[in-house]
Amino acid sequence: RIMNAFIEAKTAAEKWKITVRRVQKLCDEGRIPGTCKFGFMWMVPGTADKPPDGRRRIKEGMICAKIENSG
After folding, report:
1. Which residues neighbour 35 within 8 Å (Cβ) at sequence distance 6 or greater?
2. What is the DSSP string of 1-61?
3. Which pTM value belongs to this model?
4. What's the pLDDT score for residue 53?
């Protein structure tokens, strides 16, 4: 059965410790390979790994400093 190979976005969210909305957004952006949408429900392959968070990039050796406003 093909449906046994998929999990709901809610289950993926619990598995990956992120929100359901974030899983839905990742599916919509095509960042999780093999997803399917049935009506309003996203189905994620049960073997899919959580994609890396592309919202932030940390460069190696980068030092962040707080700049104070001397006004």
Report:
1. 27, 42, 43, 44, 45, 48
2. --GGGEEEHHHHHHHHTS-HHHHHHHHHTT-STT-EEETTEEEEETTPPPPP-TT----TT
3. 0.70
4. 80
